[in-house]
Amino acid sequence: MRTIDWVDDHIELIDQTKLPGELVIRKVTTLDDLIDDIQRLAVRGAPALGVAGAMGVALIAQGNPDRATLESEAQRLANARPTAVNLSWGVKKTMEKADGGFPALLEEALKIRDDDIASCYSMGQYGADLMDELLDTDTYRIMTICNTGGLACVERGTALGVIQTLFERGKLEEALPVETRPLLQGARLTAWELTNMGAPFRLICDSAGPFLLSRGAAQAVFIGADRIAANGDSANKIGSFSLSLGAKAAGIPFIVVAPESTIDYSTATGADIPIEDRGSEEVANFHGVRTAPEGTQAINPAFDVTPTSNITAIVTDRRVIRVDRGETPQTTPLGEIRAK
Ligand code: MRU
């Protein structure tokens, strides 16, 4: 099943706010609804946001707006969430075909969807091979954060896609997803995907992650990314930075997995990456239940930035960037997209 797709004349997407309780497919026919779905995380995860951006442009164009309206509405879509560069990348890449009207824009959006699927298989191959290169054991225990699986892409996933490839190769001893407060993407979504896969896993609290790494619970940490700066600093779900410190203290690899579209060469370092703050209510409530006193103010950054000094490697669909050897996205040549 695809997380997001174009069906007839509209977008269909899995409403991720309803998982794991219910599998609900939403029909999205207007830009306002798509922006709302992005902002309330019905559709989420950097690559899926890239596809949502691309298909959103097709949705706008279908209404036959004049060029100025198409451009301003596309910009409104690109601004729906600030950190994952894939959203604005998907909008911008699709808008390059604007002269061809709706048919050309839809064709480009569908190509972005298909490329995303292929890139996930490729990252799985590069990432699983890297584990064999880095570690001298038959099976692996891997810690991960947030949801970087098929739900964060169109199918399959980035960091969780590597874990799936290891599982399919008979090399996954155990996955250890952290719950991922405040919205529990690890517990609600990653645990759901691992269950459906039939892969061995145990769920852990966010705060247990670094301690468990210090006790040898995992041999590596794999995370996704929402934006990778030109120097390799990587923004991902809040809690990634703590895991990178834990991995560094434990002396184990910390690996970022993301498609090339997540690399933002116009952002020099992690300090320049905009970090979304999602406000107090998400922290002070959960699923409609108040968990902190009325009026509690919270700081709620949705993402953090892991500096290159804590990263072993960045795995993309076209290469492995050995950050631990001083390589950066700017210095490492592109390779081939690898097949399943
Ligand atoms: O706020 P979210 O759920 O959109 O955050 C998603 C993440 O942080 C993912 O790890 C990232 O987008 C990579 S997804 C393959």
Task: Report the sheet with the most strands, covering strand number, pairing sense and barrel closure.
Answer: 6 strands, mixed
Number of helices: 10
In spatial order, strands of the major sheet run: 5-4-6-9-14-15
Bound molecules: 5-S-methyl-1-O-phosphono-5-thio-D-ribulose
Give the N-terminus to C-terminus distance in angstroms: 17 Å
Shape: globular
Question: Would you mind describing this structure in some detail?
Answer:
The protein is α/β, with parallel strands linked by helices and 340 residues long. It folds into two domains: 4-115, translation initiation factor eif-2b, domain 1 (Four Helix Bundle (Hemerythrin (Met), subunit A), Up-down Bundle); 122-325, Rossmann fold, CATH 3.40.50. The chain is built from ten helices and 15 strands. Strands 5-4-6-9-14-15 form a six-stranded mixed beta sheet. It has a four-stranded mixed beta sheet with strand order 10-7-8-13, covered by helices on one side. α2 packs antiparallel against α3. The longest helix is centred in the middle third of the chain and has 34 residues, at 101-134. The protein starts with a strand and ends in a 19-residue tail after the last strand. The relative contact order is 0.12. The mean pLDDT is 98. Bound molecules: 5-S-methyl-1-O-phosphono-5-thio-D-ribulose. Residues 41, 44-47, 84, 146, 148, 152-153, 158, 185, 224-226, 236-237, 302 line the site of 5-S-methyl-1-O-phosphono-5-thio-D-ribulose (MRU).
